[in-house]
Amino acid sequence: MKTRLSVVAIALSTLVAGHALAADPAAAKTREQVRAELAEAVRNGDLIADGETGARFNQLFPALYAQPAVVAGKSRADVKAELAEAVRNGDLIADGETGAKFKDVAPAQYATVRAETPATTVAVGKTREQVKAELAEAIRNGDLIADGETGAKFNQLYPNRYPQPVVAQGQSREEVRAQAVESRRANGG
């Protein structure tokens, strides 16, 4: 009983909306066209069944409505071949949180695959000593991330624990006074 009332209410609201759209001459439809569209929507279950979630009748009760034809994609053999290639190359995602691939997590296991593929230029990284020095500097300055959710650094959360960056000082009071006196002399003041 409730579904019939919902269908009737939706049908009426669709007709009212149709009148509002009919005011636009570019989108003008005849009454028969609107009724045909409504009948088609009822037949396909494309009307909204639940106003809170926006779910349609064909989503809530799929057994009552004809399912759309599935477009043929790749064959099973093609999909298996692609999967085998991805496994061989390490292109599958190893960590769902970071999105890191297996070839990034364990590069030594996929070194032979890289040797077979055409060479790509790789930037030369830092030495171990450079990385250690950089880490020590980051620890000393509090440039390490303290909170993974917000991305806040230690020196932002606890500014009194870390040295503050040196701000370039402007001119001293005496220099400003000297410039003002010089400016007055030059302008005849």
Automatic annotation (TrEMBL):
Residues making up the signal peptide according to the UniProt record: 1-22
Stretches for region Disordered: 168-189
Record keywords, A-Z: Signal
Keyword Lipid biosynthesis: no
UniProt feature, compositional bias: Basic and acidic residues: 172-189
Pfam family, one: DUF4148
Entry superkingdom: Bacteria
InterPro entries, per database record: DUF4148
Annotated protein name in UniProt: RNase H-like HicB family nuclease
